[in-house]
Amino acid sequence: MAYQIFVHAKQKDDAALVDTLAQLLDHVENEIVEFKAASSKMVMMTDDGSYGEKCFGNAKLEELIKSGREYDEVFIIGPLKMMKFTALTTKPYGIKTICSLCPIMIDASGMCGGCRLTVGGETKFACVDGPEFDGHEVDWDELIARNSFYAGEETAAKEHICRITGGVRHG
Predict the structure, then answer these.
(1) 3 state DSSP class of 119
(2) Which of 22, 18, 41, 45 is nearest to 32 (CA)?
(3) Is 40 exposed, middle or buried (0-12, 13-18, 19+ CB in 10 A)?
(4) Cα torsion angle, 130, 136, 142, 148, sign
(5) 116-119 and 53-54: which strand pairing?
(6) Which residues, other chains included, contact 98 with Cβ-Cβ below 8 Å and sequence gap of 6+?
(7) pTM for the complete prediction?
């Protein structure tokens, strides 16, 4: 089985981490080396074209599907909107699409409910029932709305200058 890796970033500076990861992978043995050897191609993309191709990952995926490339399964990890549009891209082609919703987990016990989402019309918790789900069954609009509920507070917190620490940020 061959794997194809798609890496998308806003700009080259954001994609620099990929180069660092590639250098680190060169020094790691066993599973990671085997994964790299099994990968048939790595596609780099940025929003502005400063590194790799100028496009979004789902657009490149659809281009490759339309050109005849066949995929048995797509596994996606990343921002919610990117996962939503990748799942929407694969759905008409009947390609099994698994999304990892680790980023929405808080306590990993199911107690807080912060990772609650709707999958196939049922309430699920990413930390207990997942974190991998069928991307075609996730209610992306609900999840994105829930995830952005505290966007105003998050923005304010980024701009807040703590008087206790004298404005020094830790973390």
Answers:
(1) strand
(2) 22
(3) exposed
(4) positive
(5) unpaired
(6) 73, 74, 75, 76, 132, 133, 134, 135
(7) 0.76
Euclidean distance between CA atoms 120 and 124, whole angstroms: 9
Integer Cα distance of 122 and 138 in angstroms: 10
Tens-place pLDDT, residues 88-139: 999 999 999 999 988 777 777 777 888 899 999 999 999 899 899 999 999 9
From the list 110, 111, 101, 112, the residue with the least C-alpha distance to 144 is: 101
Q: Tokens for 130, please give them.
A: 């997942």
Two structure tokens written together for 50 = 């400063």
Reading the block at residue 71, the tokens are 């995929």
Q: Answer left, alpha or beta for residue 14, where phi above 0 means left and psi between -120 and 50 means alpha.
A: alpha
- Half-sphere exposure for 155 (CA within 13 Å, toward CB): 5
